[in-house]
Design brief:
- The protein starts with 8 loop residues before the first helix and ends with a helix.
- Helix 5 crosses helix 6, helix 6 runs antiparallel to helix 7 and helix 13 packs antiparallel against helix 14.
- The protein is built from 15 helices and no strands.
- With about 325 residues, the protein is an all-alpha fold.
- The longest helix has about 35 residues.
- The chain has one domain: MFS general substrate transporter like domains (Growth Hormone, Chain: A, Up-down Bundle).
- The N terminus is likely disordered.
């Protein structure tokens, strides 16, 4: 064979450094992704469980359909308004502390939904819940950029999005089962649902604080060499200067690409939110009986999303 056309190791085989980096990335993924997926799973469960309680809230505390729609939507008012400020604070204090803070406050406020007595208290708790949860998704994405190389990120984000699918699919039957506790200890089923799911979120927050280091250098389960490789391939500045933080607003709004992506995501979320919050009552209206069965049928809307999560990240 002509030596000019003979295959070479440099063209076909990964370098020893590539092999080391791949091994370090796998170790990081196995350590980080379960807890990141779990906290995002609970975010979607706690965000959308109010849809299961719609009929009960109307019957037990007199919250009308119009008031329910306003209260469900007001979550996103505070959530959207505080998303960027929350993200900027996260850069200052670190993702571990900030994600923990987010989970503790939103879990506590989710549990506080059990004390809703009328339209006003419903609006207040939903508004505060949105404020508490603001910044979670950017913080999770920041963790991905700190730990993983650019070519790995689409796959890692796709894995995290499994939590969304799981939340949509399993959150319904999970909440429905808890609502079957109606009457236990003199509490309504929807009160049990908010209390238990909020408490579970606070427990998850504890594990975030214990198990998610801010950066590879802080991970006791990595060798110095592994941390170095992850840092080099990620190439992320973990402590931006204050003047760069102040400039992020202008930079973001000056890029048409970012505005276009925001509008696409906005349109997507309108459809998604309407389904998440209203599908349980639609299911109930066609004479499906029992909280658990209503939750189970409602959760079926999340099954199709698994297909997109499986396919799209691996196309990148």
């Amino acid at each position: 064979m002509d030596p000019q056309h003979a295959p070479t190791a440099t063209n076909t085989d990964p370098s020893p450094e590539d092999v080391e980096h791949a091994a370090a990335s796998r170790k990081a993924a196995w350590r980080l992704l379960p807890i990141l997926c779990l906290v995002y799973f609970m975010a979607f469960v706690d965000r959308t469980n109010v849809g299961l309680a719609k009929t009960s809230l109307e019957a037990d505390v007199g919250i009308s359909a119009a008031a329910f729609g306003a209260g469900a939507g007001i979550f996103f008012l505070s959530y959207a308004f505080l998303e960027v400020p929350s993200n900027l604070i996260m850069h200052r204090v670190g993702p571990r502390r900030w994600i923990t803070r987010i989970a503790v406050t939103w879990g506590t406020l989710c549990a506080c939904m059990m004390f809703v007595q009328d339209d006003i208290t419903f609006y207040i708790v939903r508004f505060l819940l949105g404020a508490a949860e603001a910044g979670l998704y950017p913080a999770l994405m920041y963790v991905v950029t700190v730990w993983f190389a650019q070519q790995q990120r689409a796959t890692i984000v796709g894995i995290i999005y499994f939590a969304v699918c799981a939340g949509l699919t399993l959150g319904g039957p999970m909440g429905g089962a808890l609502m079957e506790l109606d009457g236990l200890a003199g509490m309504y089923g929807w009160q049990w649902m908010f209390l238990v799911e909020g408490a579970l979120t606070v427990v998850v927050a504890y594990f975030v604080y214990r198990l998610v280091p801010d950066k590879p250098d802080d991970a006791p389960w990595l060798t110095e060499r592994e941390a170095q490789l992850l840092n080099e391939r990620a190439v992320v500045r973990t402590a931006p200067a204050h003047n760069k933080l102040r400039g992020n607003w202008k930079i973001a709004f000056a890029r048409p690409f970012i505005i276009a992506l925001s509008l696409i995501y906005f349109a997507n979320q309108i459809n998604s939110v309407v389904i998440q919050y209203n599908f349980p009552s639609i299911v109930e209206s066609v004479h499906v009986e029992g909280s658990f069965l209503i939750g189970l049928v409602s959760g079926s809307v999340g099954i199709g999303s698994f297909i997109g999560v499986l396919v799209i990240p691996w196309i990148q």
